[in-house]
Automatic annotation (TrEMBL):
Residues 216-325 form the PAZ domain. Transmembrane segments: none annotated. It comes from Rhizophagus irregularis. InterPro entries: ArgoL1, ArgoL2, Argonaute_Mid_dom, Argonaute_N, PAZ_dom, PAZ_dom_sf, Piwi, RNaseH-like_sf. One of its GO terms (molecular function) is RNA binding. CDD domains: PAZ_argonaute_like. This is Piwi-domain-containing protein. PANTHER family: EUKARYOTIC TRANSLATION INITIATION FACTOR 2C (PTHR22891).
Length: 741
């Protein structure tokens, strides 16, 4: 598809509805942009190594060859791009760099590892195009892109030397907090150069991640197993304990200390199956315990524990090794390891992380200020070299609080229409717009919960459901108790048959009661959605034991929608464009597996509105290759929704409003071109002359923009900006139609 088939909308103007306010945002103005040309060089390092070694090799090169570089301090992005503020005295030249080898064979001295770094000039970057672009007088040219890349590298180069860095994030031990299981949460900061209306800004936000706290490896094992001290290790690890420890410590860097004058670093590959006393090596078949006693006069205190494997036939006892707080020379795949480990955290650790990262607005603002002091732009020698200056103050921008929408409930409600206050409301004195009928269902308890407790909860839930307009025909559904360790699919089928046997009709819903630490939710949804074909509603046992009316009302709303009901809708005046002509609203997103997981698939979802109120939706799902950004089978998914819309109304939509979530900035055009083509092809395949108006809205993912209200009257109850706050000036695109909310 050629680019002429679509047009990225330019900003038509600015809105004026709502109450104008002023807010602070975590954007810091670049008050002085480099006005000289920036010289771009390509860097190639032989042999090819990871990102952390790339940076280390480059930093050694920059320090060792300052005379050759003519006093210039180049900046490097860690991959291949280097920038200088003036030309170097050569166009293309190679240099030798030597680094000490970390992974020397056991018993040998550290050799030097030799690298060759080649510096080759590519072209000059002129800043004129960037100034034109910022003032809406020019497009995003190659010069613009490279100028923005260069500025991003300039601000991040020094911080990457002194702190562990992952893409646009860096982390610091200042304010680190230890958690259960031998891990620590470290605060971090995000920084990115962004072009805005007439200015360049730096977006700074607080972040966090999990690290291992440095210390003796034996202490980490103790923490992983939930013990108090190494004295609690009484014997060999059980199979389950062995697996648990191995999963967590695999890929961890440790340093040995049995040769104090020659400490080296190793990466753990796995644990031995046998203990140190039972693990033998070399021709003499000497075991590790005896070897350390003979060669290093070290008597192992825990010979019954396994050894760590750090290379082919290299075994180290767990005691006496220290694991590193972090690897200063960061592995390129370390980012993925955090997430792999994070995915294995227990509920206690997850709760700790949540409390550590969930911050009220004033605390987050202070954290951002702390990050700014760590970045210390004012004293950054690289910024000074390029003539860049950055403000220390958050940017103050204009915003508007949009009028509160009116929500409609059933006409027989005591309160038919409401305008939510502060973005929240409840079901008191209201009935759902269209109540569903529930005549065949069952309860499946994945724990030992007394029937009387469950029946008391059901009475409360059914009362609330009937009061809010649902029709619960079966008031005493069958209750099925199962052990959570049993096969989930068989358990759900059992509950399904119990409901069918009692009601004599196909079951509509299975209410599942889970314990707080249950991991069954995903499997329940998989089986119910793809195997059995029945709606499920999961609740926690602690909520069933002490049922609250508000909680039951929330469950009622979920059940009603799953059964085909309609809870509420916006009054027609708010969405006149939907009512004026047949219009379908679509929303699409992709759920990806964890970073580093290249075996699991991604799941693409598309939903579409089926009525003029835009309150009833159907969905279409696909499984596709993991981490693929573009929805592969979007054409057929769109066709499914358009056919259902036509079958419902006997009309074809004249307008399609398509919201696409989860797209990174670098993939905007790729996703837009591919998926807009798929939507058009879907329309054309249904009817050759069917050409509805398509509006494609991209929703930015992982946005680090934060807003902080200035005046107390504009705070919500949590200290945030009130719901409906929108920003469309100052920090938005120089001329494209975007906004923040």
């Amino acid at each position: 598809m050629s680019k002429e088939t679509f047009q990225i909308a330019k900003r038509p103007g600015f809105g004026n509805k709502g109450v104008p306010i002023r807010v602070r945002t975590n954007f810091f103005e670049v008050t002085k942009i480099p006005d000289m040309k920036i010289i771009h060089y390509y860097v190639t390092i032989f042999p090819k190594v990871s990102l952390r070694l790339n940076r280390k090799v480059f930093n050694h090169f920059s320090e060792d060859y300052q005379r050759v570089l003519g006093g210039v301090k180049p900046v490097f992005d860690g991959t291949k791009n280097m920038f200088t503020h003036k030309s170097l005295p050569f166009q293309d030249r190679s240099f030798d760099v030597e680094l000490e080898e970390d992974n020397a064979p056991m018993g040998s001295k550290r050799p030097f590892r030799r690298f060759t770094i080649r510096i080759r000039k590519t072209r000059d970057i002129f800043m004129d195009d960037l100034f034109l672009f910022l003032h809406a007088k020019g497009n995003m040219t190659w010069n613009c892109k490279r100028a923005i890349t260069a500025m991003g590298t300039i601000i991040s180069h020094e911080i990457s030397i002194n702190h562990p860095t992952i893409r646009n994030l860096f982390y610091t031990s200042q304010g680190a907090k230890p958690f259960f299981g031998g891990i620590e949460a470290w605060p971090g900061y995000y920084q990115l150069v962004r072009p805005t209306m007439g200015k360049m800004m730096i977006n700074i936000d607080s972040s966090a991640t999990t690290f291992y706290g440095g210390g003796p490896l034996i202490q980490m094992i103790v923490k992983i197993l939930g013990l108090r001290s190494p004295d609690d290790l009484r014997g060999r690890l059980s199979e389950r304990e062995h697996q648990k420890v191995e999963v967590i410590i695999k890929n961890l860097w440790i340093s040995d200390n049995h040769i104090p004058e020659n400490r080296r670093k190793f990466k753990i590959e796995k644990l031995t199956q046998n203990s140190a006393s039972g693990t033998t090596f070399n021709r003499n078949k000497i075991n590790v315990t005896a070897y350390f006693q003979k060669n290093y006069s070290r008597c192992l205190l825990y010979p019954f524990l396994p050894c760590v494997v750090v290379g082919r036939n290299y075994y180290l006892p767990i005691e006496g090794q220290r694991y590193n707080r972090y690897k200063r020379e960061w592995e390129s795949d370390w980012y993925y390891w955090y997430y792999r480990y994070y995915g294995r955290m227990g509920y206690r650790q997850m709760d700790d992380i949540f409390r550590f990262t969930c911050q009220p607005p004033n605390v987050r603002a202070n954290k951002i200020s702390q990050g700014l002091s760590i970045l210390d732009y004012q004293n950054n020698e690289y910024l000074k070299q390029f003539g860049m200056e950055v403000s220390n103050n958050m940017t103050v921008v204009n915003a508007r609080i949009l009028p509160t929408p009116t929500i409609q409930y059933h006409p027989t409600s005591r309160e038919k229409r409401i305008e939510p206050k502060g973005g929240v409301w409840n079901l008191r004195d209201k009935k759902v717009a269209t109540g569903a009928t529930l005549s065949s269902w069952s309860v499946l308890a994945f724990l030992n919960l007394h029937n009387q407790v469950i029946k008391h909860f059901l009475r409360e839930l059914i009362t609330i459901c009937n009061d809010t307009g649902m029709n619960i025909v079966m008031r005493d559904p069958p209750i099925c108790h199962v052990d959570p360790s049993e096969n989930t699919e068989e358990s759900l089928k059992k509950a399904w048959f119990m409901a069918k046997e009692k009601a004599r009709v196909k079951p509509q819903l299975i209410l599942c009661i889970l314990s707080h630490n249950s991991s069954l939710y995903a499997e329940i949804k998989r089986v119910s959605d793809t195997v059995i074909g029945v709606a499920t509603q999961c609740i926690l046992s602690k909520k069933a034991i002490n049922p609250k009316k508000q909680y039951c009302a929330n469950v009622c709303l979920k059940m009603n929608v799953k059964l085909g009901g309609e809870n509420s809708f916006l009054i027609p005046e708010h969405i006149q464009f939907v009512a004026d002509q047949p219009t379908i609203l679509m929303g699409a997103d992709i759920t990806h597996p964890s970073p580093g997981d290249y075996k699991s698939p991604s799941y693409a979802a598309l939903c579409g509105s089926m009525n003029a109120r835009a309150s009833h939706y159907i969905a279409s799902l696909r499984v596709q290759t993991g981490h693929a950004e573009i929805i592969v089978d979007l054409e057929n998914m769109v066709k499914e929704l358009l056919r259902t819309f036509y079958q419902t109304h006997r009309l074809k939509p004249k307008k399609i409003l398509f919201y696409r979530d989860g797209v990174s900035k670098s993939r905007y055009i790729d996703v837009l071109e591919s998926e807009l083509t798929a939507i058009k092809d879907a329309c054309h395949s249904l009817e050759a002359n069917y050409k509805p108006t398509i509006t494609f809205v991209l929703v930015k993912k992982r946005r680090h923009t934060r807003f902080f209200p200035i005046d107390r009257q504009n705070y919500d109850r949590t200290g945030n900006c009130p719901p409906g706050t929108v920003i469309e000036t100052d920090i938005t695109h120089p001329f494209e139609f975007d906004f923040c909310k």
